[in-house]
Amino acid sequence: MKDSNCIFCMIANGEIPSRTILENERFRVILDNGPATRGHALVLPKEHFANLFDMPEDWLKDAAVTAQQAAGRIRDKLSIDGLNIVQNNGEAAGQTVHHFHIHVIPRYKDDGQKILWSPRHPSDSELDAVCGELNA
Ligand code: 5GP
Ligand code: ZN
Q1: Ligand 1, residues 97, 100, 101, 104: which to mutate, most atoms within 8 A of Cβ?
Q2: Residue 2 banded pLDDT, cuts 50, 70, 90
Q3: Whole-structure pTM over 0.85, yes or no?
Q4: What are the pocket residues of ligand 1 if the criterion is a CB atom closer than 6 Å to any ligand atom?
Q5: Residue 98 pLDDT > 90, yes or no?
Q6: Whose CA is nearest to atom 18 of ligand 1?
Q7: pLDDT for 103-117, tens place per residue?
Q8: Right CATH number for 7-135 from 3.40.50.300, 3.30.300.30, 3.30.428.10, 3.40.50.150?
Q9: What single DSSP character describes residue 14?
Q10: What is the mean pLDDT of the chain?
Q11: Domain residue spans in the chain?
Q12: What DSSP line would sit under 108-134, residue for residue?
């Protein structure tokens, strides 16, 4: 199902022009217009799913394969030093467009971006508590 008010639905289905680097039956991969680095791409499903939790399992598998293909293209064509896959869900996690997407972000030595987090230092009992909650 598409959402007629969703910009990524329109882009994924070619109703709004985009800089497409790869396309298949279910996905369009475009260049992000506010890129973290040169070649930063977005994997967009052609159907509307708000986030990871709404993605059917078969779509998710195809999304992972499409992201891998896009990553391979980027690695082969640009002189990259590394690559991050990022996928945000919910505003607290930084999601600004509520149509599932995977960021494929090439990294360059000294590119000045900070995509990694600062590690915290929980006690053993805090780690045990969260592990217990997740297994309950
Ligand atoms: P989020 O923060 O939701 O994970 O990522 C949304 C991303 O989409 C951002 O990196 C932003 O630059 C990109 N973006 C938002 N609107 C457009 C658009 O109209 N065209 C393109 N190419 N990228 C967009
Ligand atoms: Zn959409």
Answers
A1: 97
A2: confident
A3: yes
A4: 7, 18, 30-34, 42, 88, 94-97
A5: yes
A6: 33
A7: 999 999 999 998 888
A8: 3.30.428.10
A9: T
A10: 97
A11: 7-135
A12: -TT-----SPPP----HHHHHHHHHHH
